[in-house]
Specification:
By secondary structure, this protein is an alpha+beta fold. It is built from five helices and eleven strands.
């Protein structure tokens, strides 16, 4: 599966048309199942290193396609074996705010089997805001939204469903070796998540809820916590 266009919504649900679905762009091909099969970036990819812009001469979309396949195996196919097939022999997965994950193939397989794959709400959706690639890693800036209608061990371990709607910015730093995912470091604002599910009162605290997403996507409102 090829990389999806930047800024597209990746929606996960039931049925072939709802899974990993994005409207094809001008450089996108689509197979008969309704999945986007391949795409190319419509611009020269830029990696920013120490304040300098380095234009890549190789094709960084290959690693993006690898990570897209990895995520599709997690959320669409919900297939642990297929997910692990995209990873190295010694992978590391770390959801940093909760330290959920594993180190080593057995531990990561156990994490995916018991605590991640199949645990996500049916209405979970991922909107990619930006992607940066180089020859060793992919960094995706995303917004993940869902209804908290079940226990989600990776984000809210041990917390009973609240039925509340959640929207949070997420950053995934994905290292790759020899065409496989070597590590995933996943970051989000846990305080914002706790506010949105009603487990943290924001009164008097410098925390925000779903308005983080509006500020990220629309640029408003900003400075809501400033005196």
């Amino acid at each position: 599966m090829g990389a999806l266009p930047l800024g597209e919504a990746l929606e996960f649900g039931h049925g072939p048309a709802a899974c990993w679905r994005s409207a094809p762009g001008p450089d996108t091909t689509e197979d008969h199942s309704g999945r986007v099969a391949a795409t190319t970036l419509p611009f020269d990819p830029v990696v920013r290193c120490e304040g300098q812009e380095v234009h890549m001469t190789s094709n960084p979309t290959d690693l993006g396609a690898l990570f897209d396949e990895h995520v599709a195996d997690e959320f669409v196919a919900k297939d642990v074996a297929a997910t692990m097939a995209t990873m190295t022999d010694h992978p590391v997965v770390n959801h940093v705010p909760t330290t959920a994950g594993g180190a080593g193939r057995d531990a990561v397989t156990r994490f995916y089997s018991e605590h991640f794959i199949g645990q996500w709400p049916d209405d979970v959706a991922i909107h990619r805001v930006s992607r940066t690639c180089d020859g060793e890693r992919v960094v995706d800036e995303m917004v993940i939204s869902f209804t908290h209608d079940r226990v989600i061990d990776a984000l809210l371990p041990g917390i009973a469903p609240t039925g509340r709607r959640v929207e949070i910015p997420v950053v995934a730093v994905v290292g790759c070796e020899n065409g496989k995912v070597a590590y995933e470091h996943i970051y989000w604002d846990q305080a914002s998540l706790l506010v949105q599910v009603g487990l943290l009162e924001r009164d008097g605290l410098p925390v925000t809820g779903a308005e983080q997403v509006r500020a990220l996507l629309d640029g408003t409102p900003l400075n809501t916590l400033q005196p």
